[in-house]
Specification:
single chain; 25% helix; 154 residues; alpha+beta; elongated
């Protein structure tokens, strides 16, 4: 019953979101994907919104989850270990986007944002001690500030 309620609420939100975005001239986007590295797969998903303050300025916000943010070099070295180590992050950020002339079909933009990422570490492969190792690794989990910049075309 609870699962059906969640599915219904999600469906209503997905159907209603484009109407809300169109009414306010906001942009709402969702994204997701899978990254393959060797035999392991890492999922990434999230969403963002951009709300105009005028013809050339938007407030932007984004949040999501990155399933594996470990460096490729360290991940390659750990492929030889008998344990599986994971490093993931939930993140959220907000900022401002400055947009070029509205007289053209293609409009350049630059943006800057700031936010926080919650890093989580986990391992498996130690057998019965996995819960204790992960409990200890919980002390390494951290919330870190992050900055972002970007440029592109609309």
């Amino acid at each position: 019953m609870r699962g059906m309620l969640k599915v219904t609420a999600f469906a209503v939100a997905v159907v209603a979101m484009p109407g809300v975005a169109r009414a306010q001239n906001a942009q709402v986007q969702g994204f997701g994907g899978v990254t393959m590295r060797g035999i392991s797969a890492s999922e990434t998903f999230g969403g963002n919104i951009a709300v105009p303050l005028g013809g050339h300025v938007q407030i932007v916000a984004e949040g999501g989850r990155m399933g594996d943010i470990m460096s490729p070099t360290l991940a390659s070295l750990l492929d030889f270990a008998p344990v599986d180590v994971r490093l993931s992050a939930y993140y959220g950020q907000a900022g401002v986007r400055l947009i070029g002339s509205s007289e053209h079909v293609v409009r350049p933009y630059v943006e800057a944002s700031a936010g926080f990422a919650r890093l989580r570490t986990g391992v498996s492969g130690f057998g019965a001690t996995d819960p204790f190792v992960n409990a200890g690794l919980g002390f390494l989990d951290a919330t870190r500030p992050m900055l972002g910049t970007g440029a592109g075309l609309l």
